[in-house]
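[Solved] Which block belongs to which protein?

Original post:
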Amino acid sequence: MEWKKEIKILTWITVVFVFAFFMPLESARFKEAIMAMFDLSKWYAQEHVILCLLPAFFIAGVISVFVSQGAVIKYFGVKAKKWVAYTVASVSGTILAVCSCTILPLFSSIHKRGAGLGPAIAFLYSGPAINILAIILTARILGFEMGIARVIGAVVFAVVIGSAMSLIYRKEEKAKREEQINFPDIPEKRPMWQTALHFFILVLILVFANWGKPGNDVTSGGWFWLWANKWYITSAFGLLLIYSLIFILKIKWQHVLIATAATAISGFISSSPLIPMVVGIAGISIITLIDKKDPDNKEWTLSSWGFTKQIMPLLAIGVLAAGFLLGSTHDNTAMAGIIPNEWIASLVGGNSVFSNFFASVVGAFMYFATLTEVPILQGLMAAGMGKGPALALLLAGPSLSLPNMLVIRGVMGTQKTLVYVALVVVMATVTGLIYGGLF
């Protein structure tokens, strides 16, 4: 086995050397792809790591530590009622409003706690796919029928793909069911409503801290009001978090108030919301790590750190690769990757099997932040993209990405990841073909 390891090291050294030796620095396309790679990485770091991923890691930590394995098994386990498990999993995205990367620590957490493969996969797919604001934006910009098709498609995909994965790996699921039948009913450490309150406070902080602007031409209405006041709303949930830390987790009120004061001061002296978010997360980390009353509080932060170590390196590699290959398109920035956008637009016109399949594959590998898929598709449709391929990309894109695949592989292995990706791509292709034929 030792020689295999040495050959693997030699292969990587050779690949890096050959790439460096033949690097086409004189090519304008290559230079732009390199800039797109770093631009996407910078934007991702600024817009998603602090406001999206870090809160998501702490939410995953809550599931891992405060939610008992028995509770996860009750609602998501292989012996849970299927209609309950799949219903909860398939509509979860309506309250989470997360992207394909932010959902990963939450998926990893419930998977490790004993959730059945089917419901866990349904949760993984639906989390980014059924974001309510993205659905509304899709209907408003791309057409009402496209918005309805996206809603129906996302829910159906979550249930069908989850059920298919459960069926394909039924032997493993049967073995897990036999283990869980004998799993003892361990009483909850605290009332379930307290854990749920703490969990949903963190979820709502994540949701409103990342609430996107409805559109440049929208200056009124409920969605715009929520966006305009999102930091006041986030602060209100921050106050509820203080209550939760003191009265639910029983952390010393003096420590909580010191962390709160530091967060508030940083908010007043900083023009960026990132600074108080960092200070707040650091404050929670410190006061839970030094807490002596309940070891679970310390374990919460350590578990969150465990998810961070597992997921962040793979995400970084994936974001760099996605930027280099497919470019960086966000806000008012449009930088091409090594694969020209014109090629993509020319390959997804009409409603052929190939155009739908190609759109599904591109969507599966491309990274879309929450809501960004809509303006990108608007541009592609203006360039000649068919309605069928557009829906195929919408159903494959938000829930999958190259960074997402790398992390999923680390959680459930290469084979299951390939099967999951194949199911998403095939279903998106067929759905796009049918939709394109109807509209």
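(Second protein starts here: sequence line, then its structure tokens.)
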Amino acid sequence: MKIIIAGGGKVGSSVAGTLSSEGHDITVIDRDPEVIEHISNTLDVICVLGTATNHETLREAGAAHADLLLAATEQDEVNMVCGITARKLGTRHVAARVRDPEYLHQTAFLQDALGLSLIINPEYECAREISRILRFPSASRVDTFSKGSVEIVEYRVPEGSRLHGMSLRELPRAFGARVLVVVVERGGAALIPNGDFTLQSGDVLSLSGSSHELRKFFEAIGQYRRPVKNLMIMGGGRIAVYLTRMMEDSGISVTVVERDEERCEKLCDLIPHASIVCGDATRSDVLAEEGITRADAFAALTGEDGDNIIISMYAGRCGVPKIVTKVNREHFSEILESAGLESVVTPKELVAQQLTRYVRALDNSRGGGMETLHRLADGKAEALEFRVSEGSKIAGIQLKDLKLKKNVLIGAVIRGGKSVIPNGLTALQPGDHAVIVTAAGRLTGLDQILEGGK
């Protein structure tokens, strides 16, 4: 596909790298010569220096024949105008980054009125990711499929765990929970295991199942954590506002610590039911006074990676059971995990993931039915949800009789809104939803899981 990205900042450059690696023809527009030079030196993409709202710049970038334009500049209004102009020039689909909370409830209207195919809000997506983690604090990460019918959670096997030395075939009998280990991250590699695979301390597991069965599993291994009742947030930016609203809808009390007085006044209007503290959360006395030792969870959401990391580590020393750390540089993930900070979120990676899912759906002209995509094991594996169509080659055939590609696993089946952990006798039926886990490369259609499938 020919894809234009307007704006070469954090989000734009991340998305450009992801989509370029998948074989798409990428052109990046930015008005900053240094940004253009950096991207041209680091990515295999075409770069155009100019303003994204200028129709001549868009023509030069190939908007008349583009399949998709992503408007990802820092200004919402610029992104919307860029999208309108690109559509007028002939671009087939337009996605725009729109970040202002005031636009959140106007998404459907904006898409219809402005001709936008997709509106992306990085801060909102980040808040949603954090809210999922906080609602299931036993896991370091939670991905949902089929409107919550199935979840894939991430969990590191600690030293001394009962799981050490146990084969996956033994898990159902040992713990009585219908869950499936779909990926094991060990030694920097993502492994798609079979029943004979033996777990070790330090393994990072991705487990699929319903929320009820996953909770049963964590209770059985003695790692279940009680639900979050009160949350402390460091930083009062957009993510904090979205997250606070989500938490309050779930009955969770929230304290936001923000150092800027003017921003604190705005927060009192934006999230009136939260406790707003005007203070410096990098100071231990401020955190102690506001009750960090009594918090069930702590989220570090400032724009400074260093502050977020250091104060998250301090929160861990204070005994906070659940800690979520926002970072802008994704290569910090492994370092933070080794330091005990396992729940790390990166907004630009979430946007790249969302747009990758959208592009793959557009790219599959035969209608592969992909509805959800999540990256697992630090991007080394993917979990994709497909709807089984009437003409699918795998419909009606028991899984034991299917010849799947290497490093591909059917992690869950959703039928009639209920999840099923599949076995060899399970046969997918038209209308089912299947969660496919793969470390074998890019999938755009369900039938591609078969040997020889394209």
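Accepted answer:
You had them paired correctly. Confirming on the second one: The mean pLDDT is 90.
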